[in-house]
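Troubleshooting log. The previous run stalled partway through. Resubmitting the same two chains, unchanged.
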Amino acid sequence: MSRTRERSRRVMRVVVAAVALAALLPSTARADTHKDEKLGFSIVYPRKWKIMPVAADSRWLVARFQSHREYEHSDAKTNFWTRHEPKLDVVIIPLSAGEDRGATVKKTKDGVSISEAAPYRDLKEYMDKTLRNEGGFHFSAEDEVEINGRKVMQYEVTIDKLARVPKRVWGWAYYGDDAIYGVVADSLMAHEDKIKPDIMKAFRSVKLFQRSGTLPSGERTGSDITLRGFDTDADLTEEDIADRRDKGVDREVSRIVDGLPKDWTVKETKHFVIVSHADKRYTKEVARHCEAFRGWLDKKFDYLGSGHRGRVIVRICADSDERSNYLESKGWFSDTYEVVTYKDRDGWSDWAMESLNRGIWNIWFSDTNRDLAVGAPRWISSGLADVMERASSKGKKIEFKADTWDKSRINELRRDDKLLPASAFFNLTTAELWADWENGRQVEFFVNYLLVGAGSKGKYKSVFPDYVKNLIVAMDEAGGDEEYIKLLETVPKTEAEETELFRKRAEYWTNQERTMLDQLRERTFGDWAVKDWERLSAAYWKEL
Amino acid sequence: MILRSWFALARPTLALLMGPALLLATTAPALASDDILQLKDGRVVDGVTMELTETAIVVKYKNGDVTVPLDRVEDYFVGGRSRETGLTDEDKEKQASGLVRFRGRWITVAKRTQQLEKERRERHEALKDVQAHREWRNRYQFETKNFAIQSTLPPHINERYSQLLEDYFAEFKKMWGIRVPKKWGRLPVCFYHDRDSFNRTAGVSGGTAAYYRFVDPRDLNFYYDRTDPDQTVAVMFHEANHYLTDLMSETFQYPNWVNEAMAEYWAVTVWDADTGKVQIGGIQDGRLVEVKNDIEAGKRYGLRRLITNENREYEFYYWGWSFVHFMLETKKYEKGFRKFFVQLARGKGVKRSRGAFNFEYVSGDECLRVFLKNLKLKDGDLEALQTEWYAYIDQLESNGTRGLEEAGMSAFAHNRRLRAERLLKAAMEAGSTSISAHIRYAEILRMKPEGLAEAEKILRRAVEIDSLEARVWAHLGYTLWIGDRKEDGKRLANLAREIDPDNPFLLIDIAEALGEHLDDAR
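Second attempt completed without errors. Output:
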């Protein structure tokens, strides 16, 4: 069960007051028209509703509108509270989708390419598959009617089981000559009486006419996906990889510019393309932070690798809802170098900045040294990502601050004598790291200490860089996983041999990780005595 | 080689990405028909022309005929005939004289025809009605003594499962002396006709097979796995046990390890339909296989870790089950463990503290204290008890065909082909009726150059067990295809799609089957 965050409650008292006041105002009956000549439809959407951005690679969703007003729901039993801005989507499903089911699979030089056919044969299936994350639901009503001589299917969905909040969703499918034009909208059940009339009015207003363009996906309705094999990049030169990456970003930027919604801006800096729906000042601030962070990463981690670090697209949504909506409209397998953030208008969370930092770090790390990003011991990669997301900037200077809640938890661990000594981190396997949630928190503090805290200066300043440099060398020396492949390919002759193989395979990765950690420890700290470790632990604990 | 391993890695992804048509020609929709049949396992087939013979119904798909023996059919309306339309010899004689005996009366043929036509139409409507109840908004709803049943399954299945639940409830009540608080009322039990409708309506995803919601509004949700009714019952009992455990105390929540381990122990319950008697404590074949796999991989779960555990771990379902089985099936510990179970929830002097959802909980240390006290043990005895537990597990054996199937399929999943082959072969010889076991065994046979014919034989046997199971046709199609009977192979793969066009697991089977030979298949 989800629980309310206390911080959000405090803010919401203010928001609730505003919503309550708004509810007293008379309903605004006038509405706005959205006409899409290329796709051949128009809809009169409820007045003051916002037009939302839709991802350039969206195959079904062609328009989205969102209420300007927030509605809230609280459940005294579960103490769960939420707010919701109803939205209205327009989706187009070519009628050929009903026949064009399945996929075509091809082997290509890049791997395996899957041309996906239509995942939805009609609006009911679209609703069925796209509502799966909202909670348990069922189609509570289904009717066929005729509007202006066209067949229209009307669906009502009730989301009421294991749902964060009970909701109603409506969908009308207008059957055109070669496509279904669907409109789908939702509402919290508690506010259905207020919202449904406006939605139904919008639904009834849909008009289809001769389109000047093609259907969103042309003839095919699905997407083409190439799933690369693990070693297919092996034949490519560094230049090829860099070229592919840069061209990918260029393509994405030109798609964004082509379909840029009203009130959005595109700004290019040295390393970033900033696509923004936030105000000028905030956009400038984010752009400055991105460059400062990038500059810091380039300087601080020059030893991590020499991969091509291309441009990154940073999309700033107007608020968290817009960000969620945008991410929802993106394909699952969008192969883009894009980080999506938003203007944190509530001011109660650092989450917008943290997700921006983490996104930039992940792309930067992978660009710089993909093998290391994928293959580093978990405590290193997890600790690094956790520390990086806390980056904040003043001018060109980057700072890191610890979460106060985490800090108080660390103090509790100290009181309970459960703080891990420094040597323990360098022995931590993935299984051990995740065996206890607190280990993850301690890893973050330890990496923070070595990387940007007191440990990054003076006596211990070379500990982290030396350790990671040794790791890079060790990974190079380790080569591939021939031994494991050999285990996989060994054909046992008897069941006893097979059982032995089974045990070896099960233990292989843990043993490999343990060996790697031991080697690294030996290389980096071979001459350290017990006292040296105690001193490092003492220095680290002191900073905590 | 790379492609083969990629497919192995991409199983879940394929299910998401692919429609059923992997490289296969699009199948035209079946001809509209009034014919409809309902199987005893609840499935309804309609929209396809059928033919009634003396012993079977032949479903005439575009890609081939599928014969369904009448003893597997619950009801039908085929070619205008339903179950009641068969004429006796006496009927035929009287018919010759112009009269027939019908419902105890001699009437004219014309009148009987009229009456039969009316009954046929009603039967047809009734079968359509069963189909319509698959929409949750049209679900069946009825009450038994302790439960409020809501179901998208046909009445004859609902009746059986609701009776099982009542008998199970009675057994638990007798053992632990529970009662349902008045304000709780009857527990809503939501029963779905397949996994997809369960996922959609109950709001779950992934591998969740069922759940019991332990806060208001309480309810129990699970689905009917027609290919494995025994497992359906076990899952229902497991979740029902969580509810019954809540009845031990309204305010207390057991540690997760106790909750899951007890539920697994109570899930293996043998029910006598005639006497309504329930016998608990059987072997959980699947869980035993998991425990033994861990042991062979060099892992054993520690007893102290189990008893003091305050988290949720998957191991509770199998290592936990084995421990509860050890406790309750070992005479010297049974009484003490039962007492521990009762005391934990109700005992005075047990230190409980308020936690999530305002329930009371015990800490891991307190749980261990109560355990040791009721088992009359000391902390130092724990290691010896653990040794005894491990020895107990070592001598546990799976029971019969089910155990062989579970162990064989698990061995297959862990790439232990020799073991899988031995166990599944034994399962086949023991009369396995598991479609999955047949398919896995056929897959193993297919890997051997000389095994194709035997694989085909096994799959044809599976067709006899369930001729409307699309996965079998898909695998049979693939077997023929690699045996150079390519046209037949493709036709049967298409038949599989016709039978069950939206089954995502079928997509995986077809993808696996044809995926390895993409280049050839194109």
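Takeaways: Residues 1-32, 515-522 of chain B have pLDDT under 50 and may be disordered. Residues 36-130 of chain B form one domain.
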